[in-house]
Design goal:
Length: about 450
């Protein structure tokens, strides 16, 4: 029908406009001061540790990202011992993709491409790949173009990507890599299964290595696959998935070798996950007895504080995109074909915030940790839109499309608020000042207005 074709053309055109406008407006925004954990009025005070000259004036490098910055020449060096990548804190597992991918991009550019351009290209490439994988997966699940373009559009307006176009830490990489992994398992398994055995093993080892260096994407993907196969209960599919997962140990050995070669720091090596588990089990016994005070930490939080912090995470996710969260929950609850995504989204929400459990972070919300769960919601909205279209329920379809457009509009509005939601407190929002300048010697440049 003409109206259906017009709807698709309109959504595709809007998708292109949102992507191009975001690239035009947000590229070059030096937000390292903000998504580098600069809580205005708190201990960092809004100052960067380092600045370096670029073709666009001085750019800042905050101390959490400095290891990623110096990690590029370290990994491109022929010397075993390059600049240390230890940054004074157990953060490196969150940042694996940054020096790895940036070093590769810098090498491919023969060292002629400025490093901040390399980081921009990586961030933009991951964002576009996430949209493309969501489009292909949604179309495969629904058999409808609408089922693909809607989640792609929602991701185009998702603020976690728009505030990180120039970031050097690439913490959001778990989101696009999870989506790419879902696309591989849902859409490309037949092609991969047809490869010769050695080629197939090499592919899966490389695949899991990339997942392992992408801020926990491999764990998110394993949870998705386990729950997906448990609910689908298809022996042939489960066999293919199990064969792919068998290559995971090879990838981990590969990663261990590189980490050992460069002396990289591991987050898990700096904490005691085993003790967290045993303490949590002991705390659960105390809870079952009805104890008002706990002598053991529950999920690394004292007393019952884990539950108040989980509420903060949920509240922060809602603040970041209330329309997207509401629509996603409705789609996963009311649409039969999207219902399998609800338990996956819940598990990914808590897994996404597992780094908070490791460090026992109190009263803080990090929007990139919401991403895997939000991704499931966006896919569910696409399934709901396709189902409503196929069943001819025009009014409800119009409401879903209007809600999706509202989610995109909310995501691209009030840039400073979105920066705060990406990396800030929920109870005491610390919005950046109206004007922010980077100054070095006698040169100053306004970076945010």
């Amino acid at each position: 029908m003409t109206s259906d074709r017009n709807l698709l053309v309109g959504l595709k055109a809007l998708l292109a406009v949102v992507v191009l406008a975001t690239l035009w407006v947000r590229s070059g925004e030096d937000v390292e001061l903000f998504n580098g954990k600069h809580y205005w009025g708190h201990f960092y005070g809004g100052f960067a540790n380092t600045a370096y000259p670029s073709g666009q004036g001085w750019r800042t490098v905050q101390n959490e990202g400095f290891a990623q910055f110096v990690g590029v020449p370290a990994m491109n060096s022929s010397e075993r011992e390059g600049p240390s990548l230890y940054i004074g804190g157990p953060y490196f597992d969150r940042f694996y993709p940054s020096p790895f991918l940036a070093a590769l991009g810098h090498r491919l550019g023969l060292g002629l491409v400025p490093i901040h351009v390399v980081y921009w290209a990586i961030n933009v490439g991951l964002w576009l790949a996430c949209m493309g994988a969501a489009w292909a997966t949604g179309r495969r699940w629904t058999g409808s173009e609408l089922g693909g373009v809607v989640p792609a559009l929602l991701l185009a307006g998702y603020h976690v990507f728009s505030v990180t176009l120039d970031s050097i830490k690439i913490q959001q990489s778990a989101i696009p890599m999870l989506m790419i992994g879902v696309w591989v398992f849902e859409c490309r398994m037949a092609s991969i299964a047809a490869l010769p055995r050695l080629a197939r093993m090499a592919f899966w080892a490389s695949f899991w290595f990339i997942m392992a260096i992408s801020a926990g994407a491999w764990l998110h993907l394993l949870v998705f696959l386990a729950l997906r196969e448990a609910m689908r209960w298809d022996r042939a599919s489960a066999k293919l998935v199990a064969g792919a997962v068998l290559a995971l140990p090879m990838a981990m050995v590969w990663l261990w070798g590189i980490r050992n070669h460069y002396g990289l720091v591991s987050t898990l090596g700096s904490y005691s996950p085993g003790k967290i588990v045993t303490d949590t089990l002991a705390a659960m016994v105390e809870m079952a007895r009805g104890d008002e005070t706990l002598s053991h930490r529950f999920l690394n939080y004292p007393q019952y504080k884990f539950f108040s912090n989980a509420f903060i995470w949920a509240k922060g996710m809602i603040y970041g995109n209330p329309i997207g969260v509401f629509l996603g929950l409705l789609a996963m609850t009311l649409t039969a074909r999207a219902r399998f995504l609800l338990p996956i989204a819940l598990c990914l929400f808590f897994l996404g915030h597992a780094t908070m459990v490791l460090v026992s972070a109190d009263h803080w919300h990090y929007a990139f940790n919401d991403g895997p769960a939000m991704l499931m919601g966006f896919l569910a909205i696409g399934i709901a839109a396709a189902e409503l279209h196929l069943s001819g329920q025009r009014l409800l379809l119009g409401l879903v499309v209007a809600g999706s457009l509202g989610s995109v509009a909310y995501g691209v509005s009030d840039f400073k608020e979105k920066i705060d939601n990406y990396y800030g407190s929920v109870y005491h929002l610390q919005r950046p000042p109206r004007h922010v300048y980077v100054c070095h010697s006698d040169e100053c440049r306004e970076i945010l207005r």
